[in-house]
């Protein structure tokens, strides 16, 4: 099986850009990734593209060939949609196509526009990631669903808003030096605790923002990298995906996310490495409680133990397992269809040593975790410096 | 590389079913496919699912995990969206995952609901497969776009509505015995020529209907089939995909569809067989002119020669190259996100000998061709009886 290298990564500055079209955003991210890779556009044989809500927000379906054109590519293009894990799924599809020998050079990534409509319209559009018949019609929105998960977690395992505040403080601190982050200001624990409630027990700083942005990574086979002298020191060594019931009510416990467990198990088995090898993690912290559930699902903490990780300083930049050194969805921003590609791009920069927070990375293996909905879908990748 | 076998296929009866939910439709198709395969649900390790416009028509995104649940599967699920080629892309993703060694048993397919809204709403929803900025805002709908392609074809190569009428007559005749087809009535050439104009030069019988339906196929690795004594006599021996500019105006000629050329070239090279080996073809005839362009793009006819194929009787059930023995999108129906899976299911039945039109098949290799938009995307698969 051909191993897969990350030859280049590209991102737009995450934030509010309601005046920019989707094709502009993806053109920018893909151009940066292709420049970073030093690979000719003619060598690219497929685009694997993630987008979640373009049919609603932009009235634009069939975005894959449009984005190939925006990227200056002449190749087949496929869109993956898995709610907020759309780009994670796109990266996984790209990895599988290179491994299967279908392609030597592919681009994967995603794009989302979220600020071109009112926040009410965007909240309603995001809600289509939940079960329309059995959740949305009952009034579920995502802040509400994650509030329910937080409440269930607190009741089952303990912990409270002050623990979650430390997650927000950590991720805001990490975002400060990141030139691609939406919110580059530190906050204090009291800022988080005193902030307006969004959905009890979650407050403003427990929630990621809405964001416009795009991400792209150039993946190449190991043989192509060698034969063409492509500088690609980071490899995708493991890929895993998990799935669960769509509706929260159909699961055993809202405080646990087994799709993450399954994705991690597959990725670690695929890579042949263990959790002790991992030196940096980017997890899907759309809400602070989601980071806690992710760290437990990934197996870095036992159930009930993840809630105190940030408060104890274990997941801060100077802790034993730095989590969301990019700033995470929380502070870097969350253009939903782009996020999975952004995580792989940021982890590649962190491992290569050219991320402003690379100094916090002590090791060669990093993990990315991208989730859809209330974690009905999860995609995990393991990256490693291999030369 | 592990070869891929079709272990089972399942379809819903195509037609109007506005009262049935998407999950009901996909549950039925997938249950039939799994029954046909005789494979336990526990053995399935992924669902690859196509859907185009559920975000608009049903306000339901993130359908992949929902459909896995409806199918009784406990596995990761991914949605592919490539306009009307969504399920073709899903089958291709599934094939690649088995070839790459990621999985031994997967389900691929798709679903679309189209009659639960007014025809105006459905026409508008379909239009998001075109370029929103440069086509849709100028008033383009798909009947209009394909009418433009037909007019361009006639001007460049000759031919006219009477040639297209023979395509409709053929596909309606093929649908008569097909228990899954939406329109099982024969029509005459004059019926087509006398029908109301939809978008000049295309009339009512040049256009496929709107359809509710679902499709599913169970794909297994050759080693799994052998070890588990799975009856799977048909293999997917070739897969190819092509891409083009999204907007018709950005292409060299509206009368040619080079994405189909590229997809076919890749699929034939992949399979190591030639056009002379092919004994039956299912092409994407969303409009009659689309069948003509497809046959030329696939290389069965030179440009300008495909227009007379049906009239000359070459592509009828008793012709040298039977095309759309299922009835095609034209008469079998076109639930857009399901169509690519339906084509693979129908071709498998045709090759296995258990389709009502199997008698028209004289050989062992069949081809399926699924297109998105005005063929900005095309996916081709080659199937072969291998035992």
Broad CATH class of chain A: Alpha Beta
In total, how many domains does the architecture of chain A comprise?
A: 1
Strand order, sheet with most strands of chain A: 3-2-4-7-1-8-11-10-9
Q: Which regions of chain A contain 5 or more consecutive residues with pLDDT less than 50?
A: none
Main sheet attributes: strand count, strand direction, barrel closure of chain A: 9 strands, mixed
N-to-C order of helices and strands of chain A: EHEHHEHEHHHHEEEHEHEHHHEE
Helix share of residues of chain A? 25-40%
Instruction: Note the quaternary state here.
Output: homodimer
* Fold-level CATH name of chain A: Peroxisomal Thiolase, Chain A, domain 1
Query: How many E strands of chain A?
Result: 11
Overall pLDDT of chain A: 97
Rg of chain A computed from alpha carbons, rounded to a whole number of angstroms: 19 Å
């Amino acid at each position: 099986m051909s191993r897969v290298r990350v030859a280049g990564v590209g991102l737009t500055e995450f934030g509010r850009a309601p005046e920019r079209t989707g094709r502009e955003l993806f053109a920018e991210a893909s151009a940066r990734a292709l420049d970073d890779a030093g690979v000719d556009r003619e060598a690219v044989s497929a685009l694997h593209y993630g987008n979640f809500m373009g049919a609603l927000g932009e009235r634009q379906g069939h975005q894959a060939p449009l984005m190939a054109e925006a990227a200056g590519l002449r190749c087949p293009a496929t869109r993956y949609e898995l709610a907020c894990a759309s780009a994670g799924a796109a990266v996984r599809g790209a990895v599988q196509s290179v491994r299967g020998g279908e392609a030597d050079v592919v681009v994967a990534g995603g794009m989302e526009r979220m600020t071109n409509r009112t926040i009410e319209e965007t909240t309603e559009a995001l809600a289509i990631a939940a079960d329309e018949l059995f959740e949305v019609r009952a009034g579920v929105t995502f802040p509400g669903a994650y509030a329910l998960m937080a409440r269930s977690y607190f009741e089952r395992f303990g912990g409270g808003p002050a623990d979650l505040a430390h997650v927000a403080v950590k991720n805001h601190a990490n975002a400060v030096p990141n030139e691609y982050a939406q919110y580059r200001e530190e906050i204090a624990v009291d800022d988080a605790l005193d902030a307006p409630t969004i959905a009890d027990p979650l407050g403003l700083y427990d929630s990621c923002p809405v964001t416009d942005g795009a991400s792209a990574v150039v993946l190449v086979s190991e043989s192509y990298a060698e034969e063409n002298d492509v500088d690609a020191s980071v490899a995708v060594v493991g890929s895993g995906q998990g799935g669960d019931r769509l509706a929260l009510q159909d699961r055993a416990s809202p405080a646990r996310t087994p799709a993450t467990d399954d994705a991690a198990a597959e990725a670690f088995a695929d890579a042949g490495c263990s959790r002790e090898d991992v030196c940096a993690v980017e997890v899907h912290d759309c809400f602070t409680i989601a980071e806690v559930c992710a760290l437990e699902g990934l197996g870095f903490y036992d159930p009930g133990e993840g809630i105190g990780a940030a408060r104890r300083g274990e997941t801060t930049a100077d802790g034993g397992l730095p989590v969301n050194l990019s700033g995470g969805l929380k502070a870097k921003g969350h253009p939903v269809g782009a996020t999975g590609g952004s995580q792989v791009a940021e982890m590649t920069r962190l491992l290569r040593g050219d991320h402003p927070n690379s100094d916090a990375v002590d090791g060669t293996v990093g993990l990315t975790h991208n989730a859809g909905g209330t974690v009905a879908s999860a995609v995990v990748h393991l990256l490693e410096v291999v030369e």
